[in-house]
Amino acid sequence: MIEALLLVIGLLAVVLLLFAVRRCNATNSSAGLGMFDFVDDLTAETKRHKASKKAPNRA
Amino acid sequence: MRDLFVLATMLAVVPLAMSNAFIAYLLWGWAGLVALQTFMFGFMAGVPFVQVFAVLALLLLFFRRDIQTLEFKPSKTIILFAVFVVHAALVALFAYADLPRNVEIFTNICKTVLFCALMPMLVTSRWRMHVLLTAIVIALSFHGFMDGLKFLASGGAHISRGIAKFGDNNHFALALAMVVPLQLYLYRYSKGALAKLGFASAALLTVCAVIATHSRGGLLTLFAVAAWQVWYSKRKVMGLVALVGCISVVLLLAPESWTERMDTIKNAEDDSSFMGRVAVWKKSSAIALEHPMLGGGFYAVQAPATFEKFRYSQGLLGFINTGDPGRHAAHSIYFQVMGDSGFLGLLIYMALLLNVYHTRMHVKRLALAQGTQSAWASDLADALGASLLAFMVGGAALSAAYFELPFLIMALMQTIKHWLDSESLKVKVTAK
Question: Pick from A10, A25, A34: which is nearest to B20 by CB?
Answer without folding.
Answer: A25
